[in-house]
Amino acid sequence: MTDDQQGKLEIETDMEFDLEDLKKDLETTRKTDRWSDAPADVKDIFHQLEWNIIEGEFHETTSFINPLLEAGVQARTLISGPMSTGIAEVGRRFKMDEYFLPEVMMSAKCMQSALVIIKPLIIAEKAASVGTCVIGTIQGDLHDIGKNIVSMMLEAAGFDVIDLGVSTPPEDFIAAIREHKPQIVGFSALLTTTMNMQGETLKLIIAEGLRDDVKVLVGGAPISQVWADKIGADAYCADALIAVEKAKACVGEHKDLLGGAPELRDHLLAMDSQ
Ligand code: B12
What we know:
Blueprint: H1 19-27, H2 40-55, H3 62-70, H4 75-95, H5 101-123, E1 131-137, H6 145-156, E2 159-163, H7 170-180, E3 184-188, H8 196-207, E4 215-219, H9 225-231, E5 235-236, H10 240-251, H11 262-270
Parallel strand pairs: 1-2, 1-3, 3-4, 4-5
Helix pairs in contact: 2-3, 2-4, 2-5, 4-5, 5-6, 6-10, 7-8
The structure holds cobalamin (B12).
């Protein structure tokens, strides 16, 4: 694949989907408007990749990635398109007790093996340095696929990203803030049982006198704006694209506002409706 082949095809993936509709679609006709602007052969491989993730055939995942890149599909379209719908269906099946942990682990391996190929392509787009971000999955939580996607997108947008990994104790966030002096700190949480650690980590940031210095973004499946407001975070980000936009605003137009300032929260919230 040459550089100019990658990323020529524009395919709309930024659409809301209902999990029940997705289930019906996957099990029956697949005649939805998902990816209707994609050429037929690309759409066909999208469906194969989606199924590969649902079925957890991780040895074969990468065989779908290169043909799509060679067809001109953008790396980030793969993430926001078939990879997202595939893993969303896995989550639905797990919730409905149709899948158990081993199946979810195999699907997670599919996502990870695809990301190994996709990451360098996204990082290659890296813009000039715009700021520093410390990010981690909060203590008690081992989910990192979403956090890794956010890290990668932030890096491509020009942030120096210090990724603390999974199950990060609050003290490790504090040490990283002191060492790297980031403008942005991001907490990922996927479990309702441990999402409270986002609040606890933020409390420690306040207690250590660091709150003014950092803008705190939170994300993960159970997280919402209501939760972000409850713990006093500056912004909730539903996905990696909005995370990048909000992080850029924090170091750009709102760079002079202190972390925790009510105006900052209001400005960042307003970006959701733009
Ligand atoms: C894959 C997966 C796993 C994998 C994780 C592998 C890995 N390396 O990450 C494995 C198999 C290990 C796993 C384990 C468990 N899991 Co699990 N898992 C999932 C699943 C199916 C997908 C998560 C995922 O990767 N999604 C895809 C990514 C791209 O989406 P995302 O994470 O939401 O990230 C996006 C946004 O949220 C946002 N974002 C995310 N983080 C951040 C951070 C910042 C700073 C910002 C700005 C934005 C942001 O941007 C991302 C990109 O767009 C979810 C289902 C779901 N609906 O989420 C369950 C799910 C999260 N798991 C669940 C459970 C219960 C568990 C276990 C407790 C199961 C068990 N009995 O052991 C364990 C917990 C282990 C632990 N201590 O953490 C439940 C949680 C339920 C709850 N109410 O808490 C879920 C919701 C499944 C379900 N429907 O019941 N799991």
